[in-house]
Amino acid sequence: MAQIIDGKKIAAEIRAGLSAQVAEFSARSGVVPCLAAVLVGDDPASAVYVRNKEKACADVGMQSQLFRLPANTTEAELLALIERLNADPVVHGILVQLPVPKQIDPDRVLQAVSPAKDVDAFHPENVGLLVQGRPRFLPCTPHGVLKLLERSGVATAGAHVVVVGRSNIVGKPLAIMLGQKGCDATVTLCHSRTRDLPAITRQADILVAAIGQPGFITAEMVKPGATVIDVGTNRTDAGLVGDADFASVSAVAGRMTPVPGGVGPMTITMLLANTLLAAGQLAAKK
Ligand code: NDP
To answer: Which strand (E) or helix (H) includes residue 68?
Structure first.
């Protein structure tokens, strides 16, 4: 039976450290790190995510500002708000909760956020810096995955990591980060056109599922003793489930993250870390 990687516990430990760092930074600089969250429309899941982020900020002693815009907001109106937040010295991090309504081009919006305040690390300049191995910010979910591995004592150096899913938010940046010097993994990035996926996933020392399909990874796809990181967060009638079939996979894997309580709490934690980092970088520029 797999040892469970407890993301909730690891996230709480990291947040305790962040609280202390925020207090120290604020006492030294007189600045309280502040995250501005922009929510357009009334998607209930997005509203929950944003509320959780606001609460997490308060828990570590950071400020947050929430901007709720109606579903019929135009792209120009959203861009004007982002411009205002870019120029506001009180705001250190800006996040636009995705998805945005269809009249708004998400790429244009993400490019409008000042790279210095881009705590999601989605701006092309920050993606470029990441690829070159000199990141300004690390994207939150991939960073959370790396922290889970590190804190669980799972070595990435020399390991074969198979990442299933190549989105710009999770799979692609995670594959890049794992292959950088320091992580030193040998990475295989899989997607919907991958031929004989089970033959590849069975080679993984560390298997990361970021697909968005409940229970997609089954025991037959996992090498006995492998570490399985399940990024999937799928709302089903049975509640929130991951991309791995927990019951069967946990019987084969050596270590495994649960859903919920695995990667999810780490994503918000790394967002807080980036907001503190942004506040420090902006203060140093003054
Ligand atoms: P996307 O839908 O953007 O990407 C899904 C990826 O999975 C694509 O690359 C797709 O391939 C691949 N895929 C789909 N079907 C298959 C298949 N049959 N075989 C192999 N690969 C397949 O999803 P995201 O990356 O945004 O999210 C993935 C999951 O992670 C979701 O459940 C999401 O909710 C969750 N998530 C969780 C977070 C957290 O904090 N825990 C944060 C972000 C996401 P192709 O490119 O060929 O289409």
So the answer is: strand 63-69
Q: How far is the CA of 231 from the centre of ligand 1 (A)?
A: 9
CA-closest residue to ligand 1 atom 18: 192
Q: How many domains does the chain have?
A: 2
What spacing in Å lies between the alpha carbon of 257 and ligand 1's midpoint? 17
Q: Which domain holds residue 52?
A: 32-114
The pLDDT-based confidence of 286 (bands split at 50, 70, 90) is: confident
Indicate whether 46 belongs to any domain. yes
Q: Which two tokens stand for residue 108?
A: 């244009």
Pick the catalytic residue from 6, 53, 147, 245. 53
What span, in angstroms and rounded, lies between the C-alpha atoms of 83 and 55? 25
Ligand 1 centroid distance, CA of 210 (Å): 4
Burial class (CB in 10 A: 0-12, 13-18, 19+), 37: buried
pLDDT tens sequence across 221-231: 999 999 999 99
